[in-house]
Amino acid sequence: MRLQPLPLVLAALCSTACASTTAKIPFYIISNGETPSLGRPGLTPIGKQRAESCIPKVFSGLNIGLIITCTVDRDGEEGLNCAAANETAVPLATALGINISTCATGDGADDDCPNNTLQKIQQE
């Protein structure tokens, strides 16, 4: 029995690893919601409201089976918007009843992480 391809949501993360092998599978890139000024982490109240009410309504009917977001790298220099990305992705994941997968950012990050995560899901 062949599994149907699952659409892929990349919340604020898509690298060149999302190229050839995932080309036949639709994926959606959702940027994080509105963030505070001065580089403060997280979402503004408006960004949080949009993440909680708008994104789940728009994406709930699209048969999404995977959400990938980023993590801050070990030295804390890359991925500083990951807090906002995660806050944006959580309401959709909750509405869909799925877990969020993560891929690291920064110099030590595995550029193939999104692609490898998708392939692992397809094999299940």
UniProtKB/TrEMBL annotation:
<keyword id="KW-0732">Signal</keyword>
<protein>
    <submittedName>
        <fullName>Phosphoglycerate mutase family</fullName>
    </submittedName>
</protein>
<feature type="signal peptide">
    <location>
        <begin position="1"/>
        <end position="19"/>
    </location>
</feature>
